Amino acid sequence: MTDPQNPDKKGTEDEWAEAMAQQQAEEGNDETSDDAEEDLWAAAMAEQQATEDEANAEASDPAPDKSQAQNADHEVFKPLDEGASSTTPRDLDLIMDIPVKLSVELGRTKITIKQLLELAQGSVIELDGLAGEPMDILINGYLIAQGEVVVVDDKYGIRITEIITPSERVKKLNK
Predict the structure, then answer these.
(1) Would you state the pLDDT for residue 6?
(2) Does a structural domain hold residue 65?
(3) CATH code assigned at 165
(4) Mean per-residue pLDDT pooled into runs of 10, the chain (175 residues)
């Protein structure tokens, strides 16, 4: 219905009818997209079922030819005995020039910032390491050995007294 006083404007009933028609059209589009999603799911489920059926059929078949399996293995994996001795030195050569940081640790301690600011030339810091105790030798921060301090031609050095095994390294980390 239109307003008799203003024929250019639509009546509220016409506006409502138009809005309802538009809403129904949009809902119809949503149902179409829902149908498309259901079709995709149905296709995926059918594909999965087909794959499972093939796997079950292969499992019930007699064992495949062993010679084919061996040929496939030889194509993918190289035998270990061929060239095993030649690969080890070459692989080590790749890492020989990589620099690492070696450090020797006399001991550790924890201090407050106040104590740190009070330090001056000649201050003594008490460490947790005991005199005569072996020094820790670290490579890139990881304990790998212990040793003792030596003096050679007026220079300090360290003599390695013990190489730390991997299991001992783990125990040291827990301290």
Answers:
(1) 55
(2) no
(3) 2.30.330.10
(4) 53 75 68 65 83 73 54 61 56 83 88 92 86 86 88 88 84 69
pLDDT of residue 117: 93
CA 11 from chain centre, in angstroms, equals 66
* Cβ pair 143, 167 in contact under 8 A: no
Per-residue burial over 49-77, b = 16 or more CB atoms within 10 Å of its CB, e = otherwise: eeeeeeeeeeeeeeeeeeeeeeeeeeeee
Amino acid identity of residue 38, one-letter, is: E
The pLDDT of residue 32 is 53
Determine, yes or no, domain membership for 143.
yes
User: What is the residue-wise DSSP string for 52-94?
Assistant: HHHHHHHHHSPPPPHHHHHHHHHHHS--TTTTHHHHHHHHHHH
Contact (Cβ atoms closer than 8 angstroms) between residue 162 and residue 143: no
Write out the residue range of the structural domain in which residue 143 sits.
102-118+125-172
CA nearest to 102, candidates 147, 35, 167, 62: 147
Number of domains in the chain: 1
What per-residue confidence (pLDDT) applies to 24? 74
- Residue 82 within a domain: no
